[in-house]
Amino acid sequence: MKIYVGNLSFEASDQDLKDAFGAHGQVETASIVKDSYSGRSRGFGFVEMSNEAEARAAISALNGKEIKGRAVKVNEAISKSEGRRGEGGGRGRGGQGRGGQGRGGWGGGRSNY
Asked: Which residues of the chain have pLDDT under 50?
């Protein structure tokens, strides 16, 4: 089971996550997501545990607890395919008014002549 861990301290390391979750079962991987340009933590990470019962116990035990001085938010990770993207509701409008319509650029733009 893949677990999302949010509100992480910027000082927290992969090993800190592994230690915290390891107290509740076998941890396969533990990684903090880092900014690709600066290399700094983005404040969240993921832990993978092979035993679902242990993973659920870890979620219950660690949600709201402190890791490196910050209370973390812990829950089951949502896969990208199940995520909120593409569910409609105001944001994905299918490109209306985009792609050069009325914006100049190459082809399709308005001319000032």
From this structure: 91
